[in-house]
Amino acid sequence: MLVVLILLASALILGYEVLMASASPVFVGAGDIAECGSRGAKETARLLDDIDGTVFTAGDNAYSSGTIDQYLTCYDSTWGRHKARTRPSPGNHDYESPDAAPYYAYFGASAGPLGRGYYSYTLGAWHIVSLNSNIAANAGSKQEQWLRSDLAANRTVCTLAYWHHPVFSSGIHGMDPPKMKDIWRVLYEFHVDVVINGHDHDYERFAPQTPDGQPDAARGIREFVAGTGGAPQRHFYTIRANSEVRNDTTWGVLKLTLHAASYDWEFVPVAGKTFHDAGSAACVP
């Protein structure tokens, strides 16, 4: 009888573990993706072929001007085969075309309300927010006010936000005035856990920090710069405080596994490259 009970308990534990694994969705992607003639987007798209889950883009999806021809020729032939499971965000190169019209036309409803470029959705136990760093995002702007209302209405344990221009970066754009500083303050106020950006063509992981760049292990936001989708890579410029891991020679995708109260991250490199970064963290209380 004891043996039967032990076997039954083991089966229940195994079943629970399988259930929890299936309830932890994968969120995978990068920014700075498809340039015609470059092999980078082709190689990162092959990574997505073998990774299930929701695909995100962190802007600059089709180079160099986000035209409909560049979307149909450069993006659609690579990352485009994962379009049905992609939740994008726009970058400055997408806005090289007036009002980023080809971006909205290509992605349709997946890009959120037409012309706005910011929206939110639920993924497992997580609340996910896609923002637009190419339009007004200062305190009091429509986007900032929408974000406050959205986060107030979606009080989940874990929340992630992504957009194109990073607030913190050791890349060449790290010295630019941070367009999304007021947005970061709102995210920090609402205890958001993770931010993902692109713009600099490299990979960088920051320790949790405040909107002013002070380390904050208790409730700071962890930022990933993942501008590694296929655009030509760039070297780092000035190493910023709280930068923990950096690489500027490897295309790849950032893969997050979203658990009920924590997350795992992994940078997956393209074939032939060895750089790798992985870890886990609990969500901000």
In short:
This protein is an alpha/beta fold and 285 residues long. The chain contains six helices and 13 strands.
What this model shows, in words?
The chain is of the alpha/beta class. Helix content is 24%, strand content 23%. It contains six helices and 13 strands. The strands form two sheets. The protein has a seven-stranded mixed sheet, with no helix packed on it. A six-stranded mixed sheet has the order 3-2-1-11-12-13, covered by helices on one side. Strand 2, helix 3 and strand 3 form a beta-alpha-beta unit. The longest helix is centred in the N-terminal third of the chain and has 21 residues. It starts with a helix and ends with a strand.
Helix content: 10-25%
CATH architecture: 4-Layer Sandwich
User: Strand content of the residues, in percent?
Assistant: 15-25%
The count of strands amounts to: 13
Task: Explain the layout of strands and helices.
Layout: H1 2-22, E1 26-30, H2 40-49, E2 54-57, H3 68-75, E3 86-87, H4 101-107, E4 119-123, E5 126-130, H5 142-153, E6 158-162, H6 181-189, E7 194-197, E8 203-206, E9 222-226, E10 243-247, E11 252-258, E12 262-269, E13 277-282
Parallel strand pairs: 1-2, 2-3, 5-6, 6-7, 7-9
Antiparallel strand pairs: 1-11, 4-5, 8-9, 8-10, 11-12, 12-13
Helix pairs in contact: 5-6
